[in-house]
Amino acid sequence: MKHFTLNEILKQTGGDLCYGSGNPVIKHAINYAKKDIEDHTLIFHLDREPIRGKYWKENHSIVVITDHPELCTNLEGNIILVKTAQLEEAYWKFIEYYRGLFDLPVIGVTGTCGKTTTKEMIRQILIEDYKVKATWMSMNSMSVNLRYLTGIDDTTEVAVFEMPVAYPGYLKVACRYFQPQIRILLNIGVHHLADCETPEEYMKAKAEIVEGLDPNSGILILNADDENIKRVLDVRHLQNVVYIGKNGSSQFQAKDIKYANGGMAFTLKYQNTEYDAFIPGYGEHNVYNALAAIAAVFYVGVDISVAIQRLSLFEQVEEHLEFKRGMNE
Fold first, then answer.
1. pTM strictly above 0.85
2. Which one of 219, 229, 279, 323 has the lowest number of neighbouring Cβ atoms within 10 Å?
3. Spatial contact of 62 and 34, defined as CB atoms under 8 Å apart
4. Cα–Cα distance between 97 and 14 in angstroms, integer?
5. Residue 215 near residue 238 (C-beta atoms within 8 A)
6. Distance between CA 289 and CA 245 in Å, rounded?
7. SS3 call for 114
């Protein structure tokens, strides 16, 4: 996380000191209180659970921003309490301020299937040239959005994040955190319904991928072969919609897909050029993941032939369609 003084943060969020004093440097931010935290941590008291400052009496420079200071007791040591009338508003002001500090490519990936694999393909292509911040494994819930966002700092050159759907509004919130300029919608199935009451509600929730996307400069990468995407997503207002798939109208088109030794071989057609490509891991779905990854990194600045070469060495994500030897082999 980029470091700030408390006064710099309060200038953006508002709030008044009601306990403690000073202007400490803030190096970490969390959105709920917990016993084990690091020094120089800013806590947004969003869960509004009772806070007992005695847990941090050995810590240095703990700041709590709250709209219920009466819930914060046993404050001592280097603890500062900030009272605000609008906690959620203060929190989002901080998020938007922090995100606005960084002018770098941010890629957001969603879809019913393939998010983790596609994110990892993108990360593995980019790390050869860039300092990359990315979602860890399949950990992509809303609870870690703040951690991932504040993981971006002055050394970060590109970021790529998974953005799932658990219920309507979930994806919209992730888009608000990360504000990705390059967004990928891989597919919309009927799995992972979670707290969506119907498949139709789930499909509409996936359409939130366009929330906040700049209609002129934002890039939306879509699966041209997915009928559900066509049903729920209106992209007529967007200037930069990029299609991937087997469909002949796709900008990044896969042709002659076949199973090969250890993975999938195919021909990638982009404009009037064709490239021989191979991706480790079996299944046509991996070809779609690869197309999306190649398209995304292309708009970051990686040449297609370079992306294909790096994908040929792709290391599959653990427990994602792994082959295992049986006990009698």
1. yes
2. 323
3. no
4. 13
5. yes
6. 10
7. coil
